[in-house]
Amino acid sequence: MPASDELDAVLSHIEENTDRIVSDLQELCRQKSISTTHIGIDEMAALILERLERAGLEATIHKTGGHPIVTGRLTGAGAKTLLFYNHYDVQPLDPLDEWTSPPFEANVVDGYVVARGATDNKGNIISRLAAFEAFLAVRGELPCSVMYIIEGEEEIGSPSLLPFINENKDMLSVDGCIWEDTFREDVPVLSLGNKGLCYLELRCRTANVDFHSSHAQIYENAAWRLNWALASMKGSDEKVLVEGFYDDVTPLTEKEEELVRLMKPYDGAERKKKFDLRRLALDLPDEELPRRHLTNPSFNIAGMDAGYTGEGVKTIVSGRARAKIDCRLVVDQDPEKIRDCVRRHLDRHGFEDIEVELLFKSLPAKSDPESITVKACQEASRRVYDAEAVINPFGSGSTPTWMVIRNLGIPLVGTGVGYITARTHSANENLKVEHLINGAKYMAAICESFGNA
Ligand SMILES: [Zn+2]
Questions:
Q1: Residue 275 in 3-state DSSP?
Q2: Shortest CA distance to 117 belongs to which of 433, 415, 425, 414?
Q3: Separation of 410 CA from ligand 1 center, angstroms?
Q4: Is the N or C terminus of the chain more exposed, i.e. has fewer CB atoms within 10 Å?
């Protein structure tokens, strides 16, 4: 029988097993696994191990300095190995009173599984396992070998993942990687990278106390001083004025330029209405928004505090002020170099006294838009969704994909299940059953194309 008919049998098997796949998702969602408060983590790791074994993988729990990482391996027909990445931890539940169905009961409500983790990321785990199980049931083997990493610290910044990857490079010698991502506008998105993050805290201290504001004429105010420093760093034209900030921004390749041109404009008017936005930065037209959003670094004030900000009136001169700055970086900017640029900028502009601390960093990365992993996802999208996948050559978030792209040097694609309406990280997180089943078929088709590539 031709290969496509054979895949049809696998896809039909997934469809026929819808009820079981949904109950598999409910099983994972009912086990709590909130990484930030360490709730249910060990139990969840044990369940993942058992679940991988049940799906036919040879599974191991690896201790780390933080939460355990679970791996699975399954040898398939082809010579190639595809690495899958997911995480078993979830976000906290707040605000709890907004949930209309209890977050760990994982009830099916009007065709949606409603639970913390339904999409982020347990639905993605189940879609992949369902694909593997269907191949084993129909054909007795997968079209390619599979290596699976499921970590338990994604929602708290993946602190143990990089050391794990660096210590296990032999085990992770693979030919491609499927990361996680969600869907947009009825077609899969293929995210080929991630932005870096440079998170800085700036601290200004002009006195060891706050003063009565009748002395404002003679005492220097830390809030003003920090504001002057910040104002020197970015113009109202949105250009970052920190010397050297843009030095390592690499120009787009021809292929990337082509992909950016193909991107659908954002709907600025709709966003303005929905979020009651006064305006978009620079009043950019819709067609320029994707380029600006995806290919430009940012220099953002995430928060500031100084003086009195409570109810009513209190008259003081601030002796201390603090600002948090987050910069989303593009290839090949480096967070430590950016920190150094900010330090030099402050010194040059007479703000030597303002302290700068790098609180968090992650690196930017991007993967080849013409790799076999991308091609496998494109073929799978046509096959299952009858649509061309949207390629995002950069990725917009600061995920740990760089650890795989930069440290393992393999082509990576972030893609998976879950829509913008899946309310990940919010109350009433959900996954539509239909999306879960289509996602499983999509993963099966990816394995097939990757195995045949
Ligand atoms: Zn998340």
A1: helix
A2: 425
A3: 23
A4: N
Q: Domain range spanning residue 91?
A: 3-194+365-452
Give the model's pLDDT for residue 4. 61
What average pLDDT does range 187-203 have in this prediction?
A: 94
Separation of 119 CA from ligand 1 center, angstroms? 9
Of 344, 362, 380, at which residue does a domain stop? 362
What does the pLDDT look like over 412-435, one tens digit per residue?
Answer: 999 998 787 888 889 999 999 999
- Residue range 210-266, pLDDT digits in tens: 999 999 999 999 999 999 999 999 999 999 999 999 999 999 999 999 999 988 899
* Global confidence as pTM: 0.87
User: Rounded to whole angstroms, how far apart are CA atoms 434 and 113?
Assistant: 10
Q: Where among 362, 384, 419 does a domain terminate?
A: 362
Q: How far is the CA of 88 from the centre of ligand 1 (A)?
A: 10
The CATH number of the domain holding residue 48 is: 3.40.630.10
Q: How far is the CA of 120 from the centre of ligand 1 (A)?
A: 5
Quick one: 207 and 143 in the same domain? no
Query: Ligand 1: distance of its center to the CA of 353 in Å?
Result: 38
What is the pLDDT, as a whole number, of residue 1?
46
Q: How many domains does the chain have?
A: 2
pLDDT higher than threshold 70 for residue 2: no
Expressed in angstroms and rounded, the spacing between residue 430 Cα and the centre of ligand 1 is 13
Q: What residues sit around ligand 1, an ion, with C-beta below 5 angstroms?
A: 120
**Residue 124 and residue 99 share a domain:** yes
Strands (E), 115-263: 145-151, 176-179, 183-184, 187-191, 193-194, 196-205, 211-212
Q: What is the CATH number of the domain that holds 208?
A: 3.30.70.360
Ligand 1 centre distance from Cα of residue 155 (Å): 5
